[in-house]
Specification:
- This protein has 233 residues and is of the alpha/beta class.
- The chain has one domain: 3-Layer(aba) Sandwich (Rossmann fold), CATH 3.40.50.
- A 7-stranded mixed beta sheet has the order 2-1-3-4-7-6-5.
- Helix 3 crosses helix 4.
- The N terminus is likely disordered.
């Protein structure tokens, strides 16, 4: 019996569907390993929050990875909606914003299927997202809780080492940055960067006038997240 009441009809898990999705993700990761171009996406969600924030962030992160890590990621990200079947085309999906987020039952089911099948969601709090996203992710994985990842977690030790964990880009409330994760059957499926503002650090320098050393820390941490997604997941 299905334990998730919002699942129904065509959104029921099936062995065939999981096999197909697993094959798609395996193919995408094999392309990464062979240095073929792949594409990442930004998540478009409902609720009024500015999902479109940080317009130069992903292109700058992609350029940094392609230059510093010799990756071959398409220079421009795509935009994908939560309920779209196209989400399964992207091994990495980035979500940011300041405000409200709302997932319908259909959207929650689709996002759950995507993550279970091998997808990876990076939620980047742009100050103000926290109170909404935790509630909405409970619709996606009611059985899971966000857990703070220890500083020895592999996501902090890919190409670049972050021995103190997530770097701080902007102050906001002066809280320490924290990196949380949702772990499903032993696999990190969602990384949540909180009180860090990584995406702001990826933006063009002229936008926030951040010191270059801070921007480099943000870009290096972003590169770690992408590398972890493509090589570990």
């Amino acid at each position: 019996m299905n334990n998730f009441p919002y699942y129904g009809g065509r959104y029921q898990d099936s062995l065939l569907k999981k096999l197909i999705l697993f094959t798609l993700f395996s193919f995408a990761l094999s392309l990464w390993a062979q240095n073929y171009s792949i594409t990442v996406a930004k998540l478009k969600y409902r609720g009024g929050g500015d999902w479109y924030a940080n317009k130069t962030a992903l292109p700058n992160l992609i350029e940094f990875c392609n230059r510093s890590l010799n990756t071959n990621i398409n220079p421009e990200e795509d935009v994908v909606e939560v309920a779209s079947s196209d989400i399964f085309l992207y091994p990495y999906v980035y979500m940011t914003g300041h405000g409200n987020v709302v997932f319908s039952s259909m959207e929650a089911a689709n996002l759950r299927n995507y993550l279970i099948a091998g997808g990876f969601l990076h939620i980047d709090d742009n100050y103000g997202l926290d109170q909404f996203i935790k509630l909405e992710m409970k619709k996606v994985f009611p059985e899971l809780e966000f857990v703070e990842l220890p500083i020895d977690h592999p996501i902090y030790h890919q190409k670049f080492d972050f021995n103190e964990g997530l770097p701080k880009v902007h102050e906001h409330n002066g809280k320490q940055p924290q990196g949380f994760g949702l772990i499903y059957q032993g696999r990190l499926i969602c990384y949540y960067s909180y009180e860090s503002d990584l995406g702001n650090g990826w933006e063009d320098q002229i936008i926030y006038n951040d010191p270059e050393a801070i921007r480099q820390q943000a870009l290096k941490m972003g590169a770690n997240i992408l590398t972890y997604c493509f090589t570990t997941n």
